[in-house]
Design brief:
heterodimer, A: about 100 residues, alpha+beta, three-stranded antiparallel beta sheet, B: about 200 residues, about 0% strand, elongated
């Protein structure tokens, strides 16, 4: 049975992983845009990304576009799998919490 | 081991749903090109229904120019910003596939121009039908490469729908393709953007 993932469960990291898991395979998102999308400060996003990177769930690529520095984030395969298991665990908890069919209130 | 209540689980799943929807929407912004071309096809073909036959050629040329200018304007408006938002990882299969799709469409355009020349004389309805079927062939091929069934579906459906207009309803051909190609292209593009 899928278990909750303590690294991913933190609300900001959960949103980050949900956004990254929605990326198509081989796609990556810009750091600035991800911060804007999730309404986070650069510092806050950076701190959470470091934890996800330490866990092996994301890769962070620093590059230059038109001589300007840009940072891109992508989920790793392990990150996608861990996120999917975490979501499955959440759904399982939700299912178990619902009243069973056929039983009165 | 972590334990949370069903209410907390529901809140977390709602947060997941919202973040997922936002990111999927960003990735679908390419559909604005489809909407632009759908509108060009709809209004352009509609105009062809009501102008004298001698003017349909110039109208088709005007449609091509308007469509290309619209695509260029959209590309300038969102191109750089979009690549700063999301991009294919350099060297990834997707990035390589993107380059291949670009080359394929360039080749398709060149070959279609050659075939248009070879097949002369063509009347305006045949030119329009060739235009639609070439673009829809591109949809089917791209959909096959990217494993995107909706693209294949759009390509097949618009191609199949445009043919009866040519063979069975020649007097209403322009009206028929304005609806069967322009409306479907615009409608499916808008539905992708609204997801």
């Amino acid at each position: 049975m899928a278990a909750l993932n303590e690294v991913i469960h933190q609300p900001v990291r959960l949103q980050i992983m949900a956004s990254l898991a929605a990326l198509g395979p081989g796609m990556e998102v810009g750091f600035t845009y991800l911060a804007q999308l999730l309404n986070l400060t650069d510092g806050n996003l950076g701190a959470h990304l470091r934890k996800l990177e330490d866990a092996g769930y994301v890769t962070i690529t620093k590059t230059f576009v038109d001589r300007k520095p840009h940072t891109y984030i992508a989920p790793t395969e392990a990150g996608r799998q861990a996120f999917a298991e975490h979501v499955a665990a959440l759904e399982n908890i939700l299912q178990q919490g619902k009243p069973e069919k056929g039983k009165g209130a | 081991m972590m334990e949370i209540s069903p209410e907390e689980a529901q809140e977390a799943l709602e947060a997941v749903r919202l973040s997922t929807a936002k990111m999927r929407h960003v990735q679908m912004l390419g559909a604005v090109y489809q909407v632009a071309w759908g509108l060009v096809w709809f209004f352009g073909f509609l105009v062809c229904q009501f102008v004298p036959a001698t003017l349909t050629g110039p109208v088709l040329l005007a449609m091509l120019i308007v469509g290309m200018l619209s695509s260029m304007a959209l590309g300038l408006l969102q191109g750089r910003r979009q690549s700063e938002r999301i991009r294919a990882t350099p060297g990834s299969d997707l990035a390589n596939l993107g380059a291949r799709i670009g080359l394929f469409f360039a080749a398709l355009t060149l070959y279609s121009l050659v075939w248009l020349l070879i097949a002369q004389p063509l009347h305006a309805q045949q030119v329009a039908l060739l235009w639609i079927t070439f673009v829809m062939f591109g949809y089917v091929v791209t959909g096959t490469w990217l494993r995107l069934k909706p693209l294949i579906g759009i390509g097949v459906v618009i191609t199949l729908l445009s043919l009866p207009g040519y063979y069975l309803l020649p007097q209403f051909f322009w009206l028929w393709i304005a609806i069967s190609s322009g409306v479907i292209l615009t409608g499916t593009g808008l539905s992708i953007l609204r997801r």
